[in-house]
Amino acid sequence: MDILYRSTRGHNEPVKASQAILQGLAVDGGLFVPDRLPVLDVPVASLAGKDYREIAYIVMKQFLTDFTEEELKACIAGAYDDKFDTKELVPVVKVDGAYHLELFHGATIAFKDMALSILPHFMVTALKKNHVDKEIVILTATSGDTGKAALAGFANVPGTRIIVFYPKDGVSKIQELQMVTQKGDNTAVVGIKGNFDDAQTGVKEIFSDKAMGEKIASAGFQFSSANSINIGRLVPQVVYYVYAYAKLLERGEIADGEKINVVVPTGNFGNILAAFYAKNMGIPIGKLICASNENKVLFDFFETGVYDKNREFKLTSSPSMDILVSSNLERLIYKIVGGDADKCAALMQALKTNGKYEIGASEKAELSDFVGGYATEEQTAQRIREVYEKEGYIMDTHTAVASYVYDNYRKTTGDNTKTVLASTASPYKFLTAVLSAIDELPAEIADDEFAKVDKLNAVSHVAVPKAVEELRSAPVLHKRVCASDAMAAEVLDILNIK
Length: 498
Hints:
Blueprint: E1 5-7, H1 17-23, E2 32-34, H2 52-63, H3 69-79, E3 92-95, E4 98-102, H4 112-116, H5 119-129, E5 135-141, H6 145-154, E6 160-167, H7 173-180, E7 187-193, H8 196-208, H9 210-218, E8 221-224, H10 231-251, E9 260-265, H11 270-281, E10 285-292, H12 297-304, E11 306-308, H13 329-336, H14 341-354, E12 356-358, H15 361-365, E13 370-374, H16 377-391, H17 397-413, E14 419-423, H18 431-437, H19 449-460, H20 466-469, E15 480-483, H21 487-494
Parallel strand pairs: 4-14, 5-6, 5-8, 6-7, 7-15, 9-10, 9-14, 10-13
Antiparallel strand pairs: 1-2, 3-4, 11-12
């Protein structure tokens, strides 16, 4: 029986998976969610020994029911190919008592590669399936990693264009270089004067602007999204946690049916929501530990049931988590209010109008699987140093947030359940913060990004990723900057629409 996708705000007719992928965001501003969460159609134990691609097919076919076997397998083969720098696409490495799921071995050395490298294949397949004759314009806001991964995925893909907005002073130097040096005749990158929430709000407003939609439609274009608000981004992330469980089973680290905990550093809530979906599919997951940095809006929500973005926005060393509006949380809210789209829409309207909303006691009880935690900047740096000195293993800042939160959770609760930790980026992406944390940042190289690359290589003995090495000589191709309230005008200019 096909799974259809509904808007969390309820004013859309249900659509097929391919249609939801093409639209990105529902026209009422809601997010597409499956009309039911599927369960695995094979025993979990049978997954042990299968490779990532095989497990990806087993998981994704349950969600993307209007894709044929041939279509879905072609998408998987196209995405998970030789662009990864390890034979095992997603190594699972035991580090200080947790199993690090290393999701950063793709072309842009961050976990977004795993989901974003397949989205262009989904899009092209969906275009054909739905006989769409318009050019798809991928419109994306990024807090650092999504942008480059999306640009790399969609560069020169026929029938698509991609426009990425990022906070001009809110990403690491390597993250910015990865975006502004991106090749591709169909790519555009724009720095905005504001933070990630400003960029994300601007993109959402463009999506919901009917006049703008009609204007670009008359010029032969149709908007879609590569952010994790697109269900085509979220579904591939579910694979991470099914694969991790299968890998631990294969190694004999856990017994069939034994529960594991999962800890995820998160800002936009997509990656940990994927773990929640994996649990609902039948993977024996106990606690879902949500790790935040000093922008701890999610931690406060899980503690109090109040989501309140009315607070100081902090720029941290883990910029992909510098988010006060966690878009994917709306999907969880829809689930815990029993699929009541009007109630979900009212809460989201309260967030837009007042900057906050509160759930009731019965809804808060539905969140018992989740545990919130956060790490300060000092605690993040301290954790990088501790693990390096103890294990010789260097984490990026986002992974270190999760590692600190997990270590603190284990000490305070005594819960020693075996735990998978989503390791979301290479330390090479956050050179200044990582080298400073391990006291390996001499003053003379503080302003030389590639001297820092060489220093990290020397102390970590981890090869410099190809994605970083290529930046040494890459020319800057994208120089656009605009105010956050001028994003729509910038899009029209890029598309040459008057």
